[in-house]
Amino acid sequence: MSPHPEMFRKVQLSVEFIGYYLDRNNRLSSMKRGLEELLDANSQLQDEQQALRQKYDQLVKENAELSKINTDLKQAVNKYHATILYVAPTKNLPNPDELGKLPPPQRITPSVTHNLAYPGSGIRPGPPARHSRDCGPLPLNECGICEQSKDQHLLAKCDTCYLYYHLGCLNPPLTRMPKKTKLMGW
């Protein structure tokens, strides 16, 4: 038996195949470099995560210790408070549960700000500024829902019913003044 004649035929490589093969090798080598960089970054991040986890666990322990100390101190204060009230029942002492708490911040309304004095400066606020022409007092509009005339700058006038509404009184409440358009009137 003689071998088949196509077995000895030379393989001819096309230019496209050689270009593809070289490009593939370049891409594989760049992907391997990228993979090595990502593995290094991953190991660094895992080390950092482990260090942060240890620090977190330590802070949790410290927090538990401080919470225990806090509850012990509160119990001691309550005992002293009870003892003082037992010895002197007419003594007016503050509630120990409310000690150390800050009062909620108070909101200053525009109607109050013009009456505030400036301590130490010797300057006292005068009456509110008037327009250049004196046309009498400005009309105060009142909200159609809450029927209050406070926060005039937050009142929007409805073009259909001609009533004013606070932005917060509307359902749903608005965060800014609505825009007038040709189709929708506000």
From TrEMBL:
Residues 28-79 form a coiled coil. Residues 111-133 are annotated as: Disordered. Keywords: Coiled coil, Metal-binding, Zinc, Zinc-finger. Residues 143-182 form the PHD-type domain. InterPro entries: Znf_FYVE_PHD, Znf_PHD-finger, Znf_RING/FYVE/PHD. This is PHD-type domain-containing protein. It comes from Timema podura.
